[in-house]
């Protein structure tokens, strides 16, 4: 199932542009993922919501939306200094695009 927001009203005959974004559903799936579970020291310190959620350390990502997977990856990787393992970022991208 794709998770997206519409950028306009749902009117017949109009083609809407999909944008991908972080949602509570995606963050719940991230915490349940094998990648999250196998990153024990990382998961014991934080929750997905405390990192990527609306009140999280990287809350600016919550308010972001992306046209493409590459644009999303670029924004997420820009913050690699934040200490989030690349495996977690890749899983987040996969879940958003799924």
Q: How many domains make up the 3D coordinates?
A: 1
Q: Tell me the series of helices and strands, N- to C-terminal.
A: EEHHHHHHH
Mean pLDDT: 81
How large, in whole angstroms, is the Cα Rg? 14 Å
- SS-based structural class? mainly alpha
Task: Specify the overall morphology.
Answer: globular
- The parts where pLDDT drops under 50 for at least 5 residues are none
Helicity, as a percent range: 40-55%
Strand portion = under 5%
Let me know the number of strands: 2
How many angstroms separate the termini? 6 Å
Strands side by side in the biggest sheet: 1-2
Tally of individual helices: 7
The largest sheet is:
2 strands, antiparallel
Structure description:
By secondary structure, the chain is mainly alpha-helical. It has one domain (23-97). It has 7 helices and 2 strands; from the N terminus they run E-E-H-H-H-H-H-H-H. It has helices at residues 24-32, 34-38, 40-45, 48-52, 59-62, 69-78, 86-97; strands at 5-6, 18-19. A two-stranded antiparallel sheet has the order 1-2. Helix 1 crosses helix 7 and helix 6 (69-78) packs antiparallel against helix 7. The chain is globular. The model has no long low-confidence stretch (mean pLDDT 81).
Task: Give the SSE map.
Elements: E1 5-6, E2 18-19, H1 24-32, H2 34-38, H3 40-45, H4 48-52, H5 59-62, H6 69-78, H7 86-97
Antiparallel strand pairs: 1-2
Helix pairs in contact: 1-7, 6-7
């Amino acid at each position: 199932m794709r998770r997206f927001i519409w950028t306009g009203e749902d009117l017949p005959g109009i083609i809407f542009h999909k944008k991908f974004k972080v949602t509570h559903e995606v963050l719940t799936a991230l915490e349940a993922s094998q990648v999250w579970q196998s990153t024990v020291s990382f998961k014991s310190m934080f929750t997905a919501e405390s990192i990527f959620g609306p009140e999280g350390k990287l809350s600016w990502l919550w308010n972001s939306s992306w046209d493409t997977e590459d644009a999303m990856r670029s924004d997420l990787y820009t913050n690699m200094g934040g200490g989030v393992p690349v495996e977690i970022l890749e899983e987040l991208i996969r879940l958003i695009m799924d």
